[in-house]
Design goal:
The chain is an all-alpha fold and 299 residues long. Strands 1-2 form a two-stranded antiparallel sheet. The longest helix has 45 residues. The radius of gyration is 19 Å and the shape is globular.
């Protein structure tokens, strides 16, 4: 416990408050980006992939802390139970945590993937900060978030293999665009046309995850199709419910399903790229993410 100059004692936030600030379990949707990119590049099991996955998680958590810092005044009205408006976390702590996690993510990217990974991690971090501080509430918001997840996949491949990883990176980016477009209606609900459009996009994304790689074997496509079916059954069903009743609650459930649905989509892309063994540990995060998401909201 500390004391501010001339002010009352300040209690540091507890672990539970930090977990809620970072929406920590949602980061389980992130490592598969790196694995999908590495699989497309032909090296899913290389030594640096695990370190890049942790780097990606650090940058994701940095974005979550920065999001709540940037939205603290809006959350005081719309979500007063969040850590900052409720007084459990100070704005300064959230900003400092975002800064530290960004530095950790960039450092890990350099250590794990060298200059080729750092060349992607730097614009990725810049995109995260630009989204939270400037772009989120503008028409460019969904595109900026999509760009961040696209870069996340490319980081797994490294700057020398960007062309090989372009299709899975764009596929993940398009999925992210649909989730972000829905998330803009979490508080007040959405026009039915929004979940209808994102649902149509998800169908194309699921098909792309299986068909886009020209020379995939039928076994790899079959494995990818199984994971794509899991992606569509969860996220698609939630979007259909939001289309039928686009209330705020249904939209939030669709957004949560979209965040968790990133995992089977990544597994589908990894398997179709010729690495069904690497897809298994990616997919294993899906039930865990959904279970923990019931305790800590991903949205």
């Amino acid at each position: 416990m500390g004391t501010g100059p001339g002010g009352p004692a300040v209690t540091p936030p507890g672990a539970g408050d930090i977990v809620q600030l970072l929406r920590a379990p949602a980061a389980l949707s992130v490592p598969g980006d790196v694995v999908a990119g590495a699989a497309a590049a032909g090296w899913p099991f290389r030594a640096g992939t695990a370190g890049l996955a942790v780097s990606s998680m650090c940058l994701y958590w940095a974005g979550m802390a920065l999001n709540d810092y940037a939205d603290r005044e809006l959350d005081a009205v719309e979500r007063p139970e969040r850590p900052i408006p409720s007084g459990r976390v100070t704005p300064g702590f959230a900003l400092g945590l975002a800064t530290g996690l960004t530095a950790a993510g960039l450092g890990l990217a350099g250590l794990s993937g060298g200059t080729r990974a750092l060349a992607i991690a730097l614009p990725l971090a810049a995109t995260v900060w630009a989204y939270d501080l400037k772009l989120k509430s503008t028409p460019l918001g969904p595109a900026a978030m999509a760009a961040a997840r696209t870069l996340d996949v490319l980081m797994g491949a490294g700057s020398g293999r960007l062309r090989a990883a372009a299709v899975p990176a764009l596929t993940v980016g398009l999925h992210t665009y649909t989730v972000t477009a829905l998330s803009r209606h979490e508080v007040s609900g959405a026009p039915a046309s929004v979940p209808a459009a994102t649902l149509a996009g998800s169908g194309l994304i699921g098909a792309a995850s299986v068909l886009a790689r020209r020379h995939a074997s039928w076994k790899d496509r079959l494995s990818g199709a199984a994971f794509a079916g899991l992606y569509l059954s969860g996220y698609g069903r939630a979007q259909w419910a939001a289309k039928q009743d686009p209330s705020a609650g249904n939209v939030r459930r669709a957004v949560s399903a979209g965040i968790h649905g990133m995992v089977p989509l990544q597994a589908a892309l990894t398997a179709t790229a010729g690495s069904p063994r690497a897809a298994l540990p990616v997919a294993a995060a899906f039930p865990l993410a959904r279970l923990l998401g019931r305790k800590v909201s991903a949205t």
